[in-house]
């Protein structure tokens, strides 16, 4: 199992550009998440999905969009990049169990800089 | 009030020392608790789940105090390889499937 994979590893964008951060998991997890981590800060949830076709906003969804057409893939879209979106983005997945969710597994992250 | 609060440290301890971290959470209905480890510029990785009765994994011991709403992590006989940031994570099932992360506690083990 590759686990959770993310592409690209690094990206520099100009203000106003768009891009999609890719995330794929091969563990057949039904839950997937996108977080951002700013320097010296904790992870903040952007969006999450409890299964194919279902997505929901997290704590900081503004400026982002997601889709979940398959169990494996959960891309994150930035439409109009802004300097405030400079951050490290982590994708994660977990398997639901009765009464709650199991451990989250993280991808290696995408380091995004918006200039 | 933040969902999860941690002392950011840094904690600088000599090899072989015992060190403890605490974390408080605000949602009394929280049900799942974890400690994650994050190395510099890497993704968080699960260190251990925290169970109501407390649990131990080698040199690591996790405790949960529901009455005071805090969890702790004790590391005995610290190794250089323990140097990392330790993240406290809480999953209040009442809010769906969101996990709340603390900002992390930085640990450096000194030779």
How many DSSP helices of chain B?
Answer: 0
Order of helix and strand elements from N to C terminus of chain B: EEEEEEEEEEE
Molecular shape of chain A: globular
Count of discrete alpha- or pi-helical segments spanning 4 or more residues of chain A: 0
Would you tell me the overall average pLDDT of chain B?
90
Number of strands of chain A: 13
Poorly predicted tracts of residues of chain B: none
The SSE order of chain A reads: EEEEEEEEEEEEE
Estimate the mean pLDDT confidence of chain A.
Answer: 92
Which properties best describe this structure?
heterodimer; A: 115 residues; mainly beta; seven-stranded mixed β-sheet; 13 strands; B: 111 residues; five-stranded antiparallel β-sheet; 11 strands
Describe it.
The complex is a heterodimer of chains A (115) and B (111). In chain A, the strands form three sheets. In chain A, strands 2, 4, 5, 6, 9, 12 and 13 form a seven-stranded mixed sheet that branches. By secondary structure, chain A is mostly beta strands. Chain A contains no helices and 13 strands. Chain A has strands at residues 4-7, 10-13, 19-25, 31-37, 43-51, 54-57, 64-66, 76-78, 87-94, 96-97, 100-101, 105-106, 110-114. In chain A, strand 10 and strand 11 form a beta hairpin. Chain B is mainly beta and 111 residues long. In chain B, the strands form two sheets. In chain B, strands 2, 4, 5, 9, 10 and 11 form a six-stranded mixed sheet that branches. A five-stranded antiparallel sheet of chain B has the order 1-3-8-7-6, with no helix packed on it. Chain B is globular. The termini of chain B are far apart. Chain A binds chain B through residues 31, 33, 35, 40-45, 48, 50, 56, 58-59, 90, 94, 96, 99-101, 103-109, and chain B through 4, 8, 31-32, 34, 42-46, 49, 87, 89, 91, 93, 96-99, 101-104.
């Amino acid at each position: 199992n590759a686990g959770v994979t993310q592409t690209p590893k690094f990206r520099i964008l100009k203000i106003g550009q768009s891009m999609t951060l890719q995330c794929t998991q091969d563990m057949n997890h039904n839950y997937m998440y996108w977080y951002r981590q700013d320097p010296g800060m904790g992870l903040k949830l952007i969006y999450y999905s409890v299964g194919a076709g279902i997505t929901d906003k997290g704590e900081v969804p503004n400026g982002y969009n997601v889709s979940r057409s398959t169990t494996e893939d959960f891309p994150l879209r930035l439409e109009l990049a802004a300097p405030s979106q400079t951050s490290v983005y982590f994708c994660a997945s977990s398997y639901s169990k009765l009464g709650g969710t199991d451990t989250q597994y993280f991808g290696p992250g995408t380091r995004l800089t918006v200039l | 009030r933040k969902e999860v609060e941690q002392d950011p440290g840094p904690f600088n301890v000599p090899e072989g020392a015992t060190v403890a971290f605490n974390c408080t959470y605000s949602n009394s209905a929280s049900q799942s608790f974890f400690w994650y480890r994050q190395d510099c510029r890497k993704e968080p990785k699960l260190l251990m789940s925290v169970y109501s009765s407390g649990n131990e994994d080698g040199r690591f011991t996790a405790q949960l105090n529901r009455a005071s709403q805090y969890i702790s992590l004790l590391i005995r006989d610290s190794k250089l390889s323990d140097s990392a940031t330790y993240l406290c994570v809480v999953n209040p099932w009442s809010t769906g499937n969101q996990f709340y992360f603390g900002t992390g506690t930085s640990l450096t083990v000194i030779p």
